[in-house]
């Protein structure tokens, strides 16, 4: 395989003119070094390819029979271009056209077979509607790859075209598995594609659902993709609050696209439509795509769940450090009860951070002789004291976790004293030469201590797992554990404040990898801002 270079830098958006789909597995690893964000792919069978002749695009195949070939392209892209948004264009398949139209301007055209400079320039000038000026080109000559897609290799058993096609899903962080399903719908539709996108009511049982993109953002991503790969159809992308969505009432729908996992849902939709006197939908089942990069705690298929798991330990947003000295750099480490904050703090300490345990400081200020001791006893009465004059924290907890007003009174008494003690500890650690200091505080969000931190790191685990841990750790009943959960901010509230999200749901090794990733990215960030 030879490569003819006509440009000298990485580009954001490229277009591959693909004449031999069998060469994709060889092309993509090379393209990875040239295209950073988006790769469009236009399939032009070799027998039709003539970049100097503007009409060649209008002679492309126009049936669903090549769907599997495009599905294979997306599958290979998931393996070789994990961080590039790959989009196989379908407009010139669905309608006669001589122009390739894309939403994003093409900076680089990639030909997979020999093409003269004059023909490449003519193609760029006359066949592309949206390019940068200048638009570069590169030839990756794959002629020595003898494997080709033959006409009799194409599945022609699935040629049926429908007026209206429907599909549904979460479509979080649109990935190549989603793109295969959406492409299937486009292939089989002559007029309209309806997509149901699950709203918040349908996502709470999903892993790390707190990191799922807002419904409107997911809807816009689906619309953008569909309109980009084929602008000739009508698209109706709507939020749905149950598995049926518009299928339970739309008589015009004729076909539904489902995955192997959701096939049963398609059957149930038809059962409901039958009860309502509506036509049954033809069901097209899409195979799941293997995730060749999955780790031990991830799914074997390409999934949004894996994408969310891989966000753990990354920087989800830039912290606001305006007006704050960078030494010491204070990380507010928070999270719900039993979410693993202490174990994360311990790992960060082993990496070189100073750690302030605010919960331990809170325990200290309850001791006899401390100002808070007298104020707490005065308000709650001597019945909260043990026989030796100490505050019985369990007895106090039973009072405040059962009465929100009592909890507020305790917090207003204790929080200011804890923050003062914490900032004194920060000064001591800085004096010891520690420039990154972790302030571990379960109440950080409620107490509104964000202002003393440069950024917030949040630990989350599923609600049921948190209840189980609290019951075991504190020897509480399920109801008692639930009471304690209710008085803390939700995982979603914690995540909304976070620069970094971590989860101790899996093994010690998995958590350590998250913390190491977060630590490394933090140090890269600090180097840039020194």
TrEMBL record:
<comment type="subunit">
    <text>Monomer.</text>
</comment>
<protein>
    <recommendedName>
        <fullName>Bifunctional coenzyme A synthase</fullName>
        <ecNumber>2.7.1.24</ecNumber>
        <ecNumber>2.7.7.3</ecNumber>
    </recommendedName>
</protein>
<keyword id="KW-0548">Nucleotidyltransferase</keyword>
<comment type="pathway">
    <text>Cofactor biosynthesis; coenzyme A biosynthesis; CoA from (R)-pantothenate: step 4/5.</text>
</comment>
<keyword id="KW-0496">Mitochondrion</keyword>
<dbReference type="InterPro" id="IPR001977">
    <property type="entry name" value="Depp_CoAkinase"/>
</dbReference>
<comment type="function">
    <text>Bifunctional enzyme that catalyzes the fourth and fifth sequential steps of CoA biosynthetic pathway. The fourth reaction is catalyzed by the phosphopantetheine adenylyltransferase, coded by the coaD domain; the fifth reaction is catalyzed by the dephospho-CoA kinase, coded by the coaE domain. May act as a point of CoA biosynthesis regulation.</text>
</comment>
<keyword id="KW-0547">Nucleotide-binding</keyword>
<dbReference type="InterPro" id="IPR004821">
    <property type="entry name" value="Cyt_trans-like"/>
</dbReference>
<keyword id="KW-0418">Kinase</keyword>
<keyword id="KW-0963">Cytoplasm</keyword>
<dbReference type="GO" id="GO:0005524">
    <property type="term" value="F:ATP binding"/>
</dbReference>
<dbReference type="GO" id="GO:0004595">
    <property type="term" value="F:pantetheine-phosphate adenylyltransferase activity"/>
</dbReference>
<feature type="domain" description="Cytidyltransferase-like">
    <location>
        <begin position="166"/>
        <end position="308"/>
    </location>
</feature>
<dbReference type="InterPro" id="IPR014729">
    <property type="entry name" value="Rossmann-like_a/b/a_fold"/>
</dbReference>
<dbReference type="GO" id="GO:0004140">
    <property type="term" value="F:dephospho-CoA kinase activity"/>
</dbReference>
<dbReference type="Pfam" id="PF01467">
    <property type="entry name" value="CTP_transf_like"/>
</dbReference>
<keyword id="KW-0067">ATP-binding</keyword>
<keyword id="KW-0511">Multifunctional enzyme</keyword>
<keyword id="KW-0808">Transferase</keyword>
<comment type="similarity">
    <text>In the central section; belongs to the eukaryotic CoaD family.</text>
</comment>
<keyword id="KW-0597">Phosphoprotein</keyword>
<dbReference type="GO" id="GO:0015937">
    <property type="term" value="P:coenzyme A biosynthetic process"/>
</dbReference>
<dbReference type="InterPro" id="IPR027417">
    <property type="entry name" value="P-loop_NTPase"/>
</dbReference>
<comment type="pathway">
    <text>Cofactor biosynthesis; coenzyme A biosynthesis; CoA from (R)-pantothenate: step 5/5.</text>
</comment>
<dbReference type="GO" id="GO:0005759">
    <property type="term" value="C:mitochondrial matrix"/>
</dbReference>
<dbReference type="Pfam" id="PF01121">
    <property type="entry name" value="CoaE"/>
</dbReference>
């Amino acid at each position: 395989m030879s490569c003819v270079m006509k440009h000298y830098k990485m580009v954001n958006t490229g277009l591959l003119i693909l004449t031999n789909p069998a060469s994709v597995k060889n092309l993509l690893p090379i393209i990875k070094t040239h295209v950073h964000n988006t790769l469009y792919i236009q399939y032009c069978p070799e027998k039709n390819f003539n970049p100097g002749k503007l009409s060649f695009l209008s002679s492309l195949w126009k049936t669903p029979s090549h769907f599997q070939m495009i599905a294979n392209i997306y599958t290979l892209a998931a393996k070789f271009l994990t961080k590039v948004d790959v989009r196989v264009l379908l407009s010139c398949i669905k309608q006669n056209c001589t122009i390739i139209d894309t939403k994003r301007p093409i900076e680089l055209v990639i030909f997979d077979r020999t093409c003269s400079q004059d023909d490449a320039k003519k193609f760029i000038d006359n066949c592309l509607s949206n390019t940068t000026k200048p638009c570069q080109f590169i030839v990756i000559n794959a002629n020595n790859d003898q494997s080709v897609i033959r006409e009799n290799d194409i599945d022609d058993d699935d040629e049926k075209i429908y007026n209206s096609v429907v599909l549904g899903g979460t479509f979080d962080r649109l990935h190549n598995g989603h793109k295969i399903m959406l492409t299937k719908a486009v292939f089989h539709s002559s007029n309209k594609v309806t997509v149901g996108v699950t709203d918040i009511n349908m996502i709470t049982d999903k892993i790390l659902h707190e990191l799922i993109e807002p419904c409107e953002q997911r809807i816009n991503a689906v619309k953008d993709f569909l309109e980009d790969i084929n602008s000739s159809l009508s698209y109706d992308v709507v939020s749905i609050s149950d598995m049926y969505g518009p299928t339970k009432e739309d008589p015009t729908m004729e076909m539904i696209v489902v995955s192997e996992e959701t096939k049963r849902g398609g059957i149930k939709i038809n059962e409901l439509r039958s009860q309502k006197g509506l036509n049954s939908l033809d069901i097209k089942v899409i195979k799941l795509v293997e995730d060749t990069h999955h780790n031990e705690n991830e799914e074997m298929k390409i999934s949004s769940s894996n994408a969310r798991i891989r966000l753990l330990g990354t920087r989800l947003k830039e912290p606001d450090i305006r007006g704050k000295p960078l030494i010491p750099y204070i990380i507010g480490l928070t999270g719900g009860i039993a979410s693993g904050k202490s174990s994360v703090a311990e790992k960060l300490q082993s990496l070189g951070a100073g750690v302030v345990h605010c919960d331990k400081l809170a325990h200290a200020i309850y001791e006899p002789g401390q100002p808070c001791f007298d104020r707490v006893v005065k308000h709650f009465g001597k019945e909260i004291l043990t026989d030796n004059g100490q505050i019985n924290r369990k007895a106090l907890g039973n009072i405040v976790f059962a009465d929100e007003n009592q909890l507020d009174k305790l917090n207003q008494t204790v929080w200011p004293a804890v923050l003062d003690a914490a900032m004194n500890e920060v000064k001591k650690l800085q004096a010891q030469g520690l420039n990154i200091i972790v302030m571990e505080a379960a109440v950080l969000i409620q107490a509104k201590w964000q202002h003393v931190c440069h950024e917030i790191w949040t630990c989350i685990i599923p609600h049921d797992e948190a209840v189980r841990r609290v019951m075991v750790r504190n020897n509480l009943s399920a109801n008692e554990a639930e009471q304690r959960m209710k008085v803390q901010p939700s995982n979603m509230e914690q995540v909304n404040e976070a620069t970094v999200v971590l989860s101790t749901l899996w093994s010690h090794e998995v958590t350590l990898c998250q913390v190491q990733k977060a630590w490394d990215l933090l140090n890269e960030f600090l180097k840039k801002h020194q």
